[in-house]
Design goal:
The complex is a heterodimer of chains A (392) and B (638). Helix content of chain A is 54%, strand content 14%. Chain A has 392 residues and is α+β, with helices and mostly antiparallel strands. The longest helix of chain A has 37 residues. Chain B has 2 domains: 204 residues, D-Maltodextrin-Binding Protein, domain 2 (3-Layer(aba) Sandwich); 244 residues, Dipeptide-binding Protein, Domain 3 (Dipeptide-binding Protein, domain 3, Roll), CATH 3.10.105. In chain B, the strands form 9 sheets. Chain B has a 4-stranded mixed sheet with strand order 2-14-12-11. A 4-stranded antiparallel sheet of chain B has the order 5-6-10-9. In chain B, strands 15-22-16-24 form a 4-stranded mixed sheet. In chain B, strand 18, helix 18 and strand 19 form a beta-alpha-beta unit. Chain B is an alpha+beta fold and 638 residues long. Classes of the chains: A alpha+beta (392), B alpha+beta (638).
Chain lengths: 392, 638
């Protein structure tokens, strides 16, 4: 978590080398600027931040992939295939050289498996046959969003009996690309659920604490101090290990989310409380109160918007932390367990010498973790800068 | 009787080879200084009058060097036991075919097979120089085996016809062990690791922890942390055959070729170093005192992957434990030259890589009724595509197999080994339908008669046996075809045992022993092992307690247990084997345990310079490899 003092951009001086007005769009006319809403100003400032935009695109893509995981994944991620144990990744070729000349159609080369009789090592050599691919082909059956059954996939082999392995296959011959897609869904949503819970807890408890003060404030602050003083990793380990093994995997996963977020709300709670405390006697709040506005309106309409920049920033920074926490727990064998699929589970399965020496492609999920975390950090960076358009 | 006579013959032949007492023996250079300084008596005085002469496998060795091995975690005491070898009264021949004299120089058996007279080696000494005599064995029998506080139930291997073994001292070097009824398998039993007890404990040292010899023992108990009574204190200091504490007290005298130094093997150890026993009682054919190798050095790895890395890097000189799975062979073969090692071929004496013990005594009456239906178990067996599992998990090595002796064993039983191993989901579905499990839920899983889903929740020790996890994951998919749900989760070994011993499992998985040693490891066909006959733990308790605890077994099991008692008493080898055939026939009919694959051979590594290591070694717990191949004769070539 970031230190609150650094991220509350409203008060601390920004260490920004650019001229103060560079965040304002060049093409914006001064009069347009004066009447623009806060959201418009924020968006204009955000557009200037190239890395943040890239981050946004990547995150959008990842969430798109996880929403449509069944559709994007060409195969059932739990289906073993004895003929594909440690199958290497296949390159998709587009230009097909046939007797009729060049044609543009995607294909991969079929691979044959051999096992060395002495060392028992598995190797694959091209058989010379081509496996053609097509968009919206038929493959494994699945229930789309649990609503209706279908077997249409974004891309599949022309002949449904053929298999292809974009990211290779694991030790049980399961398609790594499909597994990474399903893993994206779990890993990217555990961040969301956990962060959402942290957010609600942090704003509610921090807000109550700061707005009302007094004894309520004292109780909540001691609670926060207590939670902060707990050593997080051992707590996670203990709680995760205490989960009954008979629970379904996804229930266990939800509880892990809870555990992770129950520790994660405190920083935000502190900051919100501090800001509320400071703002409580500001002119605009007093004015609203004297106008007879209800407490709810004062809090949500007048006070919370001044905190948006900080909340956005801490949100985008918290999501990658959550992904890493789940991945770390799975990696330790305490979070999600197979047959659940998450990036952490996939990495844990790659954690052996056999994978390093025989199947390095099993580490592809690690690349996804790095990309996702970087994308979130860039996005958070840009949004923090953008959310306070007047501050420069 | 013929079996015992043959062994006697071998013993006599070996005795003839023994050189005359006038022979001047050689010792390792590392002991020279101590002898010159007068701290150690000369080698001739340290050895027995007639030391056991060992003919090395390939050649006479040279002294020196360190044998490096790795232990897996803080509970891998049996890895030390295996390389030091349990120095019992008898030991296995290196080919696992029969037993030969070890601590005992020779023996006679009376015609009934109830009295065993052992002749010990005159002048043989414990590792602190105190003579080893018949008193040490009598101490074990009279003061420990027959002591209700030390053994509330005496170990089954020393009990025949409900009575524990008795001992009679003939003279200092002769002792008679007496049973209430014939015990045909006693001499082979003595070669197995757990039957080392008669010669494990030195009376002169261990008696200080025994109330009969030390009236103040309670004071010692009170002073020692975490010890509540004298048997616990005794075991802490003198060790048990199969426990880490055996290797944590460097002061305890032993008969082993190497002795622990420093702290030994205790919780938190990162390394265990053992040094030669200057009083070891074996010499080679040229009179060099064994062992050749000065030191054993055993690092502690936290997981099998770390251990495998050490092997690949050439930091292990001889080991198969923890790295023996056939799926490691490609990695080991790839790095052979770089690591300076060769692949060690281990003949698997196990029957099956993974046996499934259905819980015949399930606590839940509904599950129990379903599991006890043989057709259900047959269907679950037919619902497994073993070929696929073997190809994926066991590198294509092995064949579909249930349990029981391997095909080349004299007791091979085709039905026990191969029945119902074909993949036939249609027939399986038919059998399950006939068993009344016709209702299904929305996900296509069958329902139990009381409306719950037919589910098996299974724990396995995935850290040590990742292949079981892979197999279970494949079986999960395959059983979906027959409407049975399987949830497998990996647990720590101690949780595995506590769940099993509490009888809280649906089924348990473990490797099935008894491929080449079916009579020594009958735990999958007989409810006799309280920590491994998982298919019926309450039956096991019933048998071991003589009917006072646990739960009365089915008639089919009671019949087998009666046959087993008859087998143990039968001195005629041929008749004994016939009895065991009957046990196997009933077990095949009952199908309490099913399996996946005939256990493929195992792999290990051996330093390319290490000599006197056999080409292929049987891998078994009853033949605690590599102990019976005599690691004390291993040496490093230049």
């Amino acid at each position: 978590m970031t230190n609150p003092a650094e991220t509350t951009s409203g008060e601390t001086p920004e260490t920004n080398a650019l001229p103060a007005d560079s965040h304002l769009p060049v093409d914006a006319q001064p009069d347009k600027l004066a009447v623009a809403s806060q959201w418009q100003l924020t968006w204009w400032a955000f557009r200037k931040h190239k890395l943040a935009q890239l981050g946004l695109w990547i995150i959008g893509l990842l969430y798109l992939l996880s929403i449509f995981a069944e559709f994007v994944a060409p195969d059932d991620p739990t289906k073993q295939n004895r003929r594909a144990v440690f199958h290497p990744p296949q390159m998709i070729h587009f230009v097909d050289r046939t007797e009729d000349g060049l044609r543009l159609r995607p294909y991969v080369y079929e691979m044959d498996r051999q096992r060395d009789p002495d060392t028992l090592a598995i190797s694959y050599t091209p058989s010379g046959e081509k496996i053609y691919l097509r968009l919206f082909g038929r493959g494994a059956e699945y229930k789309f969003w649990g609503l209706w059954e279908t077997d249409i996939h974004l891309f599949a082999t022309v002949n449904p009996r053929d298999k292809f392995f974009l990211f290779g296959a694991d030790r049980l011959g399961r398609d790594m690309f499909s597994r990474v897609m399903y893993g994206t869904r779990i890993s990217m949503s555990i961040g969301l659920v956990g962060v959402a819970i942290s957010l609600v807890l942090g704003i509610t408890l921090g807000g109550i604490s700061g707005y009302y003060g007094g004894r309520i404030d004292a109780v909540i602050q001691r609670l926060i101090e207590f939670v902060l003083s707990l050593p997080t990793i051992p707590i996670w380990l203990a709680l995760a290990a205490a989960l009954p093994p008979s629970w379904p995997i996804y229930q266990q996963y939800f509880v892990i989310t809870l555990i992770v977020s129950l520790v994660g709300w405190t920083e935000l709670g502190r900051v919100v409380r501090g800001r509320f405390l400071a703002m409580k006697n500001d002119d605009f709040v007093i004015a609203a109160r004297l106008d007879g506005a209800s407490e709810r309106r004062i809090i949500f309409r007048h006070m919370l918007p001044s905190l948006t920049s900080h909340i956005i920033a801490s949100l985008t920074l918290a999501i990658p932390l959550m992904i890493l926490a789940e991945t770390g727990l799975s990696f330790l064998g305490l979070g999600l367990q197979p047959p659940a699929i998450s990036w952490g589970v996939l990495l844990k399965e790659a954690q052996n010498i056999l994978s390093i020496s025989q199947a390095p492609w099993l580490f592809i999920p690690g690349g996804f973790v790095v990309i996702a975390v970087l994308a979130f950090n860039f996005l958070g960076d840009g949004m923090r800068d953008a959310a306070d358009p007047y501050s420069h | 009787m013929s079996f015992a006579r043959r062994i006697l013959g071998t013993a006599a032949a070996l005795a003839l080879m023994t050189p005359l007492a006038a022979f001047a023996y050689e010792q390792a250079p590392m002991l020279d200084a101590a002898v010159e300084a007068g701290d150690l008596p000369p080698v001739d005085d340290r050895l027995p009058a007639k030391p056991e002469v060992i003919a090395p496998l390939e050649s006479i060795g040279t002294y020196g060097g360190t044998l490096r091995r790795m232990l897996g975690g803080s509970n891998d005491h049996n890895s030390i036991l295996r390389v030091v070898s349990p120095q019992g009264l008898t030991r296995w021949k290196p080919d696992f075919s029969e037993v030969v004299p070890n601590v005992a120089e020779s023996w006679e058996v009376n015609d009934e097979g109830t009295e065993f007279t052992f002749h010990l080696r005159e002048g043989m000494k414990w590792s602190d120089g105190t003579p080893f005599t018949a008193d040490d064995i009598v101490f074990f029998v009279d003061d420990l085996l027959h002591n209700k506080e030390f053994y509330p139930n005496p170990p089954a291997r020393f009990v025949v016809a409900g009575e524990a073994m008795r001992a009679e001292k003939v003279d200092d070097h002769t002792v008679k062990l007496i049973f209430a009824a014939p015990y045909g398998t006693f001499l082979t039993e003595l070669a197995t690791p757990l039957a080392q007890e008669p010669v494990l404990w030195a009376k002169h040292y261990c008696q200080q922890f025994h109330p009969k010899y030390n009236p103040d023992v309670q004071k010692m108990v009170d002073e020692t942390e975490a010890v509540e009574d004298w048997p616990a204190l005794y075991r802490l200091n003198c060790g048990e055959v199969e426990a880490p504490n055996r290797w944590s007290n460097p002061e305890r005298p032993t008969l082993d070729p190497w002795l622990v130094t420093g702290e030994g093997y205790s919780a938190g150890s990162t390394q265990v170093v053992m040094e030669r026993n200057p009083y070891f009682w074996q010499v080679d054919t040229e009179g060099n005192q064994l062992p050749y190798i000065d030191k054993l050095q055993m690092g502690v790895a936290q997981d099998n992957q770390a251990l495998l890395l050490e092997a690949v890097a050439g930091n292990i000189d001889m080991q198969r434990r923890k790295i023996s799975n056939i799926s490691n062979k490609p990695v080991l073969a790839e790095n052979m030259e770089k690591g300076g090692y060769k692949i060690l071929n281990m003949i698997n004496s196990n029957s099956n890589s993974m046996a499934i013990h259905f819980n015949m005594t399930h606590k839940d009456p509904v599950m129990r009724d379903v599991i006890r239906n043989r057709d259900v178990r047959a269907a679950l067996s037919l619902g497994i595509d073993r070929e696929e599992i073997i190809d994926i998990v066991y590198a294509g090595q092995g064949e579909p197999w249930q349990i029981g002796p391997r095909p080349d064993h004299v007791l091979y039983n085709e039905k026990l080994g191969r029945q119902l191993t074909e993949y036939d989901p249609d027939r399986a579905n038919e059998l399950l339908d006939q068993a009344g499990l016709t209702e299904r839920d929305g996900d296509g899983y069958r329902l139990l008669p009381d409306g719950r889903r037919f589910t098996f929740n299974v724990n396995y020790t995935g850290i040590e046996q990742p292949d079981w996890g892979d197999s279970l994951e494949i079986i999960k998919e395959q059983w979906e075809e027959i409407g049975v749900e399987l949830n497998a989760s990996s647990v720590e070994r101690s949780i595995y045992y506590s769940r099993g011993e509490a009888n809280e499992h649906d089924f348990m998985v473990w490797g099935a022993p008894g491929g080449l040693d079916p009579t020594l490891s009958p735990r999958d066909v007989l409810a006799v092992h309280p920590q491994a006959s998982w298919f019926a733990i309450p039956w096991t308790r019933w048998y071991l307690s003589g009917g006072s605890e646990g739960e009365e077994p089915t008639e089919a099991m009671k019949k087998r247990l009666a046959l087993y008692d008859a087998y143990k008493a039968e001195a005629d080898q041929g008749k004994a084997l016939d009895i065991f055939r009957q046990i196997h026939t009933i077990a095949a009919e009952e199908l309490e345990v099913i399996g996946i694959s005939l256990a493929p051979n195992l792999v290990g590594v051996v330093n390319a310079k290490l000599r006197n290591v056999p080409e292929a070694i049987p891998a078994s717990w009853m033949y605690p490899d590599p102990g019976p191949t005599l690691p004390q004769t291993y040496y490093y070539a230049e």
